[in-house]
Amino acid sequence: MKKKVSMPLVEKLIAYSGKGPVRFHMPGHKGGKGLPQRLRVIMEKNLFRWDMTEIPGLDNWHDPQGAIEEAQRLLAELYGADRSFFLVNGSTSGVMAMLGAALEKGGEVLLPRNSHKAALMGVILTGAKPVYLKPQVDGELGVATGVPLSEWRKALEQHPDAKAVFITNPTYQGFCPNLSGILSKAKARGMKVLVDEAHGAHLAFSKRLPSSAGEFEVDAWVQSPHKMLCSLTQSAWLHLKGRGLDRERLRSYLSLLTSTSPSYILMASLDAARAVMETRGRWWVEKGLELAERARKLINQKTHFYCVGREARGRGGVYDVDLSRLMVNVSPAGYTGFFVEKVLRERFNIYAEYADFSNVYFLLTGGNTWDDVAKLVRALKRFPARKKKLKPVCFPADLPARALDPGEAFFSPAERVHLDAAPGRIIRDSVIPYPPGVPLLCPGEIVEKQHVEVIREILRAGGYCQGIKNGCITVVKNG
Ligand SMILES: Cc1ncc(COP(=O)(O)O)c(C=O)c1O
Fold it and tell me: In angstroms, rounded to a whole number, what is the distance separating the alpha carbons of residues 170 and 389?
């Protein structure tokens, strides 16, 4: 008998798309629904025909002089940049490259401790010295909210020799810092300003949204249009302003972090996403925002959950909020975010972006519909309030003590130890609850009992932590 050929991943994808899921997760095109019809048809029809390599006439990403260069020029024009670069390895590569371009080995960079792991990887790669700023933590929401401007000012004064500041705008939760306040202080001290705007490629297209880095004299900012716009997963772009960053050094880092066969499909999707935003960007963003606003109102009126809104402004280091995403706080009603996310997925065919212990997150773009929102609200109404309010699991309020710089620890010999034996040891491989990808423990930091407790609580509640396998953690080898 002929053996059935197995394609486990393909089969999963067929099953997922076949059941018509309601998509509140990335990518922002939501299964292509949000793309203009003509563009969608062209892209679907040409997937294989456009899967190309650098043949003559198609330009070369590593040394662009033709079509790729022109597409990047149009992108820079749209975002008010002096120079823009297509990326095929996500904002992850852009974040690492801009840190690489701004920092020498041992150079100090100021960054909030709740930055994405890409920033940590950039610090490791460059051998820079991170100065972590402690974000405020909201006890009800159970998440880090932001670093107040006053704390930024203090850190800038205490570290006048720092070479760069690294800012996230917005965070995964949609919280934005006071960009212009931080920028003016950092620039006055001659520091480079680098912005991780992975979640903010849409900000520049609506006055009702927080400011985008492009409105200010930042040196570089990175965006993932696959998150809130309509390009394909893994595509991203990086913008530069002025001559603050050494462009050749940036290019070298980008090349180092990129395949020698960059995908033309991804680059074409970036070119198309730029064109969509140029022609109907306002419509795309306003539609997502409008849907999110209606959903927020209904969730707060008709369910037992709380959907965070503009009232978060001014609290816990939050300067502004991106209202085109929904952060639904469920623990006061007695649920974990992990549980609600699972029930929505398994019983209602509704896919959230992600969940943490206390919240579930939904991303809305021009690719969503009113029907999606109606289904979500209907499903959330089915969760009755439970008697026992759950206490959020938060990262410890104090930052972990550091024994080594991240780069030193990362390149040290390592061993695996069980979590029970981990307190007192120096971390080699980060421990990162994922999503959102914010490290609990970074290389070089000392594990304490309270970190082990947080990890255990997250795992017990159904969450996932990168860096933990079979109850073990990787630490720097003793002796
Ligand atoms: C704040 C932040 N920065 C950077 C990234 C990396 O983006 P990408 O997935 O495009 O590599 C993420 C990913 O979720 C993120 O949340």
Answer: 29
